[in-house]
């Protein structure tokens, strides 16, 4: 007989009596394991965290972990057989594995629906309280706000439209506080919400913004809008006062931006500087730990999350609640299937009803979008052994200790007013869920992770708890706690007490690992497009654009089109610019990509071959629905990967997302894109932020050394790739001249793309030069790389300005001409935007932000636009708002995308 392993050497059983065990490291096919007097022989290679049967499981019988079902057998499963469902089989098929996986699944994701027995419900008693008092060093605020673990100045954008303003303002103010130990930072809170007409999440957004303002970690807050968005400062203030948020107990100011971008930045700097002495005077004092409010999260989970790290948080939160503090469990869809455990101890029947109401509402909302709340697990989750939502939920629920009762079930961002154990409605998307807990008043976040998620929040410290020693060693510079010690024999009481003491130290000012790394991100629960299922069938069967150019009327254009442009050519790529692009494959890789990009640019790397390095931080790729929304995301990202301005491109994955590097490679293969020319790096698998940064920098350095030199070429209008957008009222003469310009470029063999939502298409002055009918359908999908020059209309599923520009730039245009009627637009990270207006436009105080004012004889406007375009494309003129930092990037989720 081959080497025989004792069961404890190679696997764990979550609870005695379960019929499936978890492999603690990869076990090859044929491995022999001794278990309870029998010898098990593995029929397939079982990856770390994946499961194999330890008992015979008959067809129709439940597969059990923690004594709870996570699926039903489709065929007889013998002891030693690898258990796998179809979803994981498919997920592994796009991975680059060196071993075979079963050709067919042997279990299905089937769990009997939970039925609440209200008639026999019995309220649970609270755990006994501790009589002694523990303290931490915190910032005492007004009694309605609590006690802070940090002291930050927060710059809060009311909607996505002011996100670039608060980001740029924070950058300018970084030197103002760094030598002051009483101020932890000046941080921006930019987000994606409130930028479209009549969003469905308005109440949720107002509640979150009000909660952000009064969180006890805030020493002062500047709240910024333009005054005409769908969510404004006035609405936030009115909501806060109506719902008794103590905003008068926090130093704050509401500001509406009415002047030019630069003028408003100067005003913002002055306001914050006036606050510095007041915020600096705030001191830490000894405070009872009953003032700690901790948010419990898990992300990048694996099969050991429910065995080591989540039970550890359950232990810590039970201790804190017994001291009078509060803990918040969240991620609604990640508790589906674990209802029997969650509701095993509840304060009262009203709380149980509310919990189930929130779960059912979540399921209904996702169904409107053609998806299922049970579809949550990401590719990284499945790769690490979480086969479905039931298995993920059972483990996630272990953040509630078996002795802990659920005291409250609350809405997303609803304030936690008393001590106790809370459940808060939120999606499983980690960052969206954390934002709700911060709005609810959490002053610390405890985050468990199996793969090694590195996400943190800007002004609430995050304590990272990793599930296994092997992963902790790989990511030791980015993790705070090794819960794998429990798997190796340390008692939960001993480990829990160590982490509890660490929590008090971090609450008192000791920096968490994430704070030392300077890493932080924000995402509020994103808007959902549908309010019922009435449009679902139509949306699921919407015709796909053909990709063929739209024929335009063959009318002569008597304009001088002899203008020439100096471009570069490298092999078959001809372009006006050459950039190094880092594409984060999910939201959690975005900020790290930004850190690497800034460092490369500061070092002057790539010069002179590359003009600069750019990244495209976004909110997608994980914790969102699949289907059309996921296809839209992949298509748009590949549009950027193949963009003519991109000389060298690297994909940076977080490591546990849906749209990881292997997923993107597979999508490129399907679309006929050469994936071999790209670089690939993984924050988790390459060893954390510092190590992956070194790898990315080394890859670009190698590519630059090996690159062939580019040659200069001269092109006419046929070489132009132009996008045209409009915002606000359209001047008739300007519209007509843009129509003529379009005809000239297309007639010469160039490319012009106009988004479907542009008001230009409804203007006769523009369209009369192009086509005779107004019923022209889009020719390309949102974010689709244009393969044939000509005139194109791009699908646009929302009216959001930045989302429109994000899709438009992915088509391959190298310049965007924006006709401005009221206020300039936020610019793109690397495709330059020429902001044009007419002298009649009502721009108030924004004309300093515009690049070209059309005045006088309209007959010369086309030449003026082309001359300024030439300056931009040849880099002798930089558009004003790009130069000032008014830059944003936001991916649309289409009509059917929804947070999971």
Automatic annotation (TrEMBL):
<dbReference type="Pfam" id="PF20629">
    <property type="entry name" value="GD_AH_C"/>
</dbReference>
<protein>
    <submittedName>
        <fullName>Altronate dehydratase</fullName>
    </submittedName>
</protein>
<feature type="domain" description="D-galactarate/Altronate dehydratase C-terminal">
    <location>
        <begin position="773"/>
        <end position="852"/>
    </location>
</feature>
<feature type="domain" description="D-galactarate/Altronate dehydratase second">
    <location>
        <begin position="568"/>
        <end position="696"/>
    </location>
</feature>
<dbReference type="InterPro" id="IPR052172">
    <property type="entry name" value="UxaA_altronate/galactarate_dh"/>
</dbReference>
<dbReference type="Pfam" id="PF04295">
    <property type="entry name" value="GD_AH_second"/>
</dbReference>
<dbReference type="InterPro" id="IPR048332">
    <property type="entry name" value="GD_AH_C"/>
</dbReference>
<feature type="domain" description="D-galactarate/Altronate dehydratase second">
    <location>
        <begin position="138"/>
        <end position="279"/>
    </location>
</feature>
<comment type="similarity">
    <text>Belongs to the UxaA family.</text>
</comment>
<dbReference type="InterPro" id="IPR007392">
    <property type="entry name" value="GD_AH_second"/>
</dbReference>
<keyword id="KW-0456">Lyase</keyword>
<feature type="domain" description="D-galactarate/Altronate dehydratase C-terminal">
    <location>
        <begin position="290"/>
        <end position="528"/>
    </location>
</feature>
